[in-house]
Structures
1.
Amino acid sequence: MKKIAALSTLLILTSALAASPKDTLVVQESSDIPTMDPGVTYDTASGAITENLYETLLTYSGASLTKLEPLLATKWAISNGGKTYTFDLRKNVKFHSGNAMTCADAEYSFERNLVTNSAESGNWFIAESLLGTGANANDDKTITWARIDKAVECNNSGQLVFTLPAVDPAFLAKLAYTGQSVVDSKYAAKLGEWSGKEADWKAWVGKDLTNSKLSQAPSGTGAYKFVRKDANAFLATAFDGYWGKKPAIKNIVIQKVPELAARQQAFLRGDADIIEGGGRAVDEEQIKGKPGVLWIDNLPNTVSTAFFMNENIKSGGLLGSGKLDGKGIPATFFKDSNVRRAFSYAFNYKQYIDDVQNGKGKQRTMLLPDTFPGYDAKIGTYSYDKAKAEQYFKRAWGGQVWKNGFVMTANYRAGSVPSQTAMEILKKNVEALNPKFRINIQAKPWSEMLSDSKTGKEAMIVIGWAPDYADPDNFMYTFYSSNGYYFPRSNWKDAQVDKWLEQARNTVNTAERNRLYSLVGKKAYEQAPYILMPAGIAYTFVRDNLTGVSAANYNPMTSFSSTGTLWKDLGKK
């Protein structure tokens, strides 16, 4: 009878707003949930769900970004020179289906990620660790079933054993990512997912799991189990068979409410406990200080954003004449470090902080969150300096840039006020230096920009990176390595930087890694491959009767970033 009553409450809440009951968490978001399959979870909306329905071997300890603690594992040992990891798994853990979790489920989960490894997923980084390549077997023909099978196995003692081809200091952090959660192998196979056997592995290589059978009917070990989902609402309820501490909140309702004003009204009435806001300027004006609101500020920001200055622009449409004749720019315009430094001095960082971040932002020295290990606060930063910008423009291209002038076109993400404002600041300041300088800026759909930037067709764009796992490699290699994910967008290459980044990937000595990342940061400051955007100071707000939300326990690596915690850690008073 209790289950029926709880479900009735959920159904009422999704059809008509009512004051949020004490045993129910009501969340309103602007968009939907792409997937509930951990094997393809690679966005925050999906991650916020999967991390509460499923669990990983280990997790972050409290608010720490560096300390990891056991979750489905109870302990682990590292051997073989840092290339073998052996995990003891928790006993008496049940999936939502009622199946008992075994080592075979964990082995299946990781092998499934290595087998499928589609472009839509984040499995490239676990494949890098376990196979030595981020590719799947369709794209890298050297990947065989034998290699996948050997990478992760259960030994005779029921322990899970990972065998890496090389040392990876970020491996444990990667295991804390919700996409590496343990799934219910018997249940999944019964649904029609991969069998877990060699016989049909090739049919699943590169397969997009976004709308998989498992996504439609998930079964994890998490504190909450799935009830139902439609176009406008997601419902979950506490799992009676959960191995850990029982959660204080029984029901979870997530509603899709596209209109910001409607979300704000529901929140201020108390009909919603948490909502997706409208950005700092809007939220400070409309929400902060209102009755019933808990506002938490000065939280860590783990996103890094920059202007990319592409050193090999592959789109003639942005180059004008394609020459330094005052009517265009050559494809290699940004290859001269004098041009990049001139642009870096021409950007007004303080104005951006004031206009976009309401004065709540700060400059970083490198494209790495300042809360991450490896960040060096002593490296220099650029400031708006007209004289220095002019000085470097006069040196650029042997004096030809200053003498002839240039015309270039830069695109920004359509609908992004911060990106548009940043472009406008830069355009105004650069053009003020010399009447022969011209930057044409234009809005472009995000999907088109992403696609074109991947193939080097954008001249200059503003783009950021949010972490997959809390390790500096996820930022430093991504931005600064010529083998990194973002290289095609910048085409900046420095052999010494590449060497330092590879060395940092191949040692588990934290002090040595930090030293190497500092060297990369200093070299990048000198070479100015990017204009580093000031980092906004993060904040959140919830109804003040919600407990468990505080700056002390807020972890930005938790996908459900409104609270920086899991649902099971929340309560109501």
Note: Residues 1-17 have pLDDT under 50 and may be disordered.
2.
Amino acid sequence: MRIACLGGGPAGLYFAISMKLHDPAHEIVVIERNRPDDTFGWGVVLSDETLDNLAANDAVSAARIREHFAYWDDIAVIHDGVKTVSTGHGFCGIGRRQLLLLLQARARELDIELRFESDIPEAAIDELRREFDLVLAADGLNSRTRQRYAEHFQPDIDVRACKFVWLSTHQTFNDAFTFIFEKTEHGWVWAHAYQFDADTATFIVECSEATWRAFGFGEMSQQASIAVCERIFARHLDGHALMSNANHIRGSAWINFPRVLCARWSFDNVVLMGDAAATAHFSIGSGTKLALESAIALADYLHSEPDMASAFDRYEEERRLEVLRLQSAARNSTEWFEQVERYLDLDPVQFNYSLLTRSQRISHENLRLRDPAWLESAERWFQAQAGNEGSARAPMFAPYRLRDMQLINRVVVSPMAQYKAVDGCPSDWHFVHYAERAKGGAGLVYTEMTCVSPAGRITPGCPGFYAPEHEAAWQRLCDFVHAETPAKLCAQIGHSGPKGSTQLGWQEMDAPLPEGNWPIMAASAVPWSARNQVPRAMDRADMERVRDEFVAAARMAERAGFDMLEVHAAHGYLLSSFITPLTNRRDDDYGGSLENRMRYPLEVIRAVRAAWPAHKPLSVRISANDWVGDEGVTPDEAVEIARLLQAVEVDIVDVSAGQTSTQAKPQYGRMFQTPFSDRIRNETGMATMAVGNIYQADHVNSILMAGRADLVCLARPHLADPYWTLHAAAGIQDGECEWPAPYRAGRDQLQRLAERGEGWV
């Protein structure tokens, strides 16, 4: 093949090398617009895994690269005057310029033509396509090739919020990969610093756009900008200067990071690689890793697949998955830094943990493998904050107090509809279901949404708080749980609103009943879907009646013996129909602005708080994101909703999301709703509960330890395993959970199996 590689960075050079190793007969030219030793950036970071992949592909260049590596094992975080160091992280760095020179030398040995200072305008790319059998576009972040064929590649470019500048210094930071956070007269500025050769370290300076503007960095020359950075970080630089190698760039060299992802990576005989195809934020250090491993993969497929089109398809299919994984981690990391000022008031222990786990690639137990001593000290700190001085148990087993309610741990059984009530009365099914989960070790057990009136039921199988027999059935449960377990019980009360009079959950969710439908009402006459009833828009008399029904239900829950109460104001039910602008079309005092949309829900919540005993906590569940962009409730607005709830003495917010509209487009994933809890908790100071695809003890512990929530709710795991908490404790070898006395023999066997790394099956 005759191959042109556009771009002389790691992707272009290493692809050329890999192709020559497969078949020396290939004619390959690498075309680079800059000089051989020009490079924007300083050091790059690779993992041992990537080094092993390089060695398997080309032992010669891998050995040369390894000779120039700087290794370090620690991460240091300097925040609030405290330096926190954790170990076991295993990084290696090399100068980008050194890496390029090594790859250039290897390419020449393999008879690859290198053309430097050869600028290829967009129009000339068409000619290259005709001249060469294959054109590899590894022409970087601002790829002209990607732009030339944008209609085919369909690039999605998301310019991120923070400003950064890529510098270096002879202060080597040779003991750790170091993060430094400095508070200045214009806001917070932070640095990512790591050694990459014997006497030089990368020093990336980053800040918010507002801070960057306040300093006037955009109007400064590079040298003036560098001088300000030297002043900000003077006590960490120990007299060493900061340096830039971006002299070929006009202005101060500060940029916003663009996240690039293309819908397609190939067109005809052109294929994208490296930053031209996809970028991963520098805070997870994986851009060069992606480029080198993609080069290996494409070269392999071009020699294993029957034709070039098949090779491109396989390359894209298999590498895209890895890219998406890294981009997901990079997005989490990027957003953490963009929002870092939210966390800077955390204790240094919690701040360090939050930083280390920001991408979700490092979990709680993974940290234990890396640095068990530091993690144990962090767990002791967490337990001490919870009043459990001297304990080193995992965060999920820290006690928690809300008003006079004391929980033995932070695990919550989420409310999950059972659809087994008869005329609103909970049945033996409910008794067994909730009693089992209370015996299962969770600190707090929720009942499903219990409706305040017959017309407020979601389905005919939903339980209620509106008849004496309901109260008696719930009291039977409360009496058993309080007598036989340490668990506390929370009653969730709500009204179905526009989602009422629908089928049981295992029939057709949110679909109208085939017959026997009852009238429904909501904030406005907006149906849940075209198939559902059009609800009656509530008038003032309706509002007063429903408010009083909530109050009556709260009083019934108190008499039944519940320890905590939650008002359901999420998921498109009646109170939620007022909060979201998607369903609130009112033009009176209850529609329009957030203040107006919250007016009626707050009226109900105030009345419930007044009726509910002062010594017992009150929660409200909200949908923190309608998943429809600015047309619905956004995470920004959710913070303001939480502040309004705080003002009416709500103790904790149960932070869910979505289910308010059929238009919603949720972004699913592990712990996908936790960021909304994190934001509310750390911007308002209000206690929160996290919920949403949380299913491992690792998830629970990382959420709590990082300060993303105070309690963690698990739903489906508790449907599959009523004893999830006790089993999770055994899995992490926590022997302090109290099992019901008749079950202790089972506990002992489970713990023995866990110690041997075995399970039940």
Note: Residues 308-338 form the longest helix (31 residues).
